[in-house]
Structure formats: structure tokens, C-alpha cells
Amino acid sequence: NPRQSDYRQQAEAIALATGGADVLTASQDFGTLADALSGVATAYAMTGYDRQFGPPLLDVRSAALQSAHALSERGVGDIAFVFGTERDGLRNEDVERCQFSCAIPASAEFSSLNLAQAVQIAAYECQLALRGEPVVHAEQIRFAETEPPASVNALEGLYIHLEQAMLAIGYLDASEPKRLMARLRRLFNRARLTQTELDVLRGICAAIIQSRSDRIGRKR
Questions:
Q1: 121, 144, 167: which is the final residue of a domain?
Q2: CB 167 within 8 A of CB 213
Q3: How far apart are CA 132 and CA 154, in angstroms?
Q4: For the purposes of burial, counting CB atoms within 10 Å of the CB of 188, is it exposed (0-12), middle (13-18) or buried (19 or more)?
Q5: Residue 196 lies in a domain
Q6: Containing domain of residue 203, as a range?
Q7: In the chain, what percentage of residues exceed pLDDT 70?
Q8: pTM
Q9: Which of these ranges, 51-65, 140-154, 185-199, has the smallest mean pLDDT?
Q10: In this structure, are residues 155 and 198 in contact, taking their beta carbons and an 8 Å threshold?
Q11: Residue 67 shares a structural domain with residue 109
């Protein structure tokens, strides 16, 4: 149980690791998903279905191939596959923090896999992709000779800044901001912003907020 601080030393965990005790020992635990994704370049939320306002959905093989290409071409930042709990899966806010949703194609009659099965399949697909010649998609070509995409944490900073800017000009309803912000998250996840592009957008947000403050100051 990773919620127990000594899980790395538990006999049951070591036995289940089956020769992978070094992986178990090197594993890290974090208090929040935000902390766990610090330094991550691309995060895939493992979820069984496409959410209306969630990030773009990929099957696990496409996600693994995309990840392998990113690591081989850029080598910048980590790749994360984010899994939820056995009982409840991922919360909407956890899915929205990732740039992609990722599903394991399964029978419609038996679409639900347990957590261990899902992790094992995702790990297998990643290993397969890393050992083979990944398929290059148009989106991946975009980053092959340019700068890498913005990180998860950088995108979160943009969303906070963007929400502040829209509130400053009265475009966002402060009592119900989630729907619009979810749509914008989906838009920017599709666009796969680079850090330079993200910096431009944050500069615009800062100018909007500053302009609003200046107008209020002059009125006083």
C-alpha cells in the first residue's frame, strides 16, 4: 500500500515485485498529483472514455509511440502515465491536468480493467515502443527540429494566469468558471504549445491585468 510510508520494505510488496526490488526501492511518493508531475513534459491520463471537456483521447499504443518518439528526439523532460485509484479512477481535475487522455481498447462488454492490469499493459506498450521504430505523426514532426512543448506545470501556470485575465475584463463568470476553463484546457492541449508560445500568452495575460489595474487607478 503506497499510502504507508514503509511500503518499500514490506515483504508482500517485495514479493510482488518479482525481481524488481530495485524499481520498488527507487519509487517515489508525493502528496499531490501536482508535485508528482513537477518536471514532466507530457502527461497521459489513463481513463476508459472520452470526456466532453477533457484532453484529446489516444489509445495506449499511440500514446506509447508518441512518448517514445518524444524521448528519442528531444530527450527533454519526463513522460508520465497517470492512473487513478482501483475503485474510483481519476477525478476530472486530475484528467484536466494532463495533456492527453489515454484508453486501453477493450471489449465493450468487459471494458473495465483493474489497476494492476492497466499499469502492466501501459508498461508493455511503452517498452514495445521504445524497442521499435516509432511511427512519426504530424504533431510529432512539429517538435522534431524546434523547441519542446511546454511542461505540465507551465501549462497549469498559464491556465491560472488566463483565468485571472478573463476575470479582470469581465469575460469569465466568477461563479461558474469551470466549463469555459475546461474548454480552453482542451484547446491548448490540442495545440501542444511550446514554452515560447506559452510565454507570449502569459505576456498578453499580464498586459490585460495591468491595463485593467491602470484604468482603475486613473478612475480613482
A1: 144
A2: no
A3: 31
A4: buried
A5: yes
A6: 152-219
A7: 85
A8: 0.68
A9: 140-154
A10: yes
A11: yes
